[in-house]
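Record passed on here:
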Amino acid sequence: MKIVLIGYMASGKSFVGKKLAAVLGIPFKDLDAEIENQEGKSIPKIFSEKGEIYFRKVENEALKQIISKAEDFVLATGGGTPCYGNSLDLILNQKDVLSIYLKTPIDVLAVRLLSEKENRPVVAHLNTVEKLNDFIKKHLFERSYYYNQAALIIDNGKESVDDTIEKIILKLF
């Protein structure tokens, strides 16, 4: 089984993904980590040195490589992954891939992002919860079209990771 987690930055894709993979007994992959390994630098560094267009091309290629492999995995994507190029089509049209949108409340996202914004190039310049809230609302309005096309939508953020994983497992089996 190939599971691809999509959702906004700080929605818990990596955190939930690692635990979900462990429960299912399959490998966990993080698209951003794969890109960082391939490029030899952090995502913020890639953004600052090469720009977002370059990053999105590299991201799309890395996604293609991972999805085309004949192995089971849980993959955490970047927040923008399904919104650029043909990435969403790659995720949705691969018959052995299940897409899951981790839908997280804006207030939860804002608090999480404020504490880790240095590692998030898209929001690094926003320095209050209010500014983050406004930015996230606008961004989610644009991105929800892509996120909501996932095969499963799991509400996430107000409950424990174990509860979120239990919701996913119940939908899978």
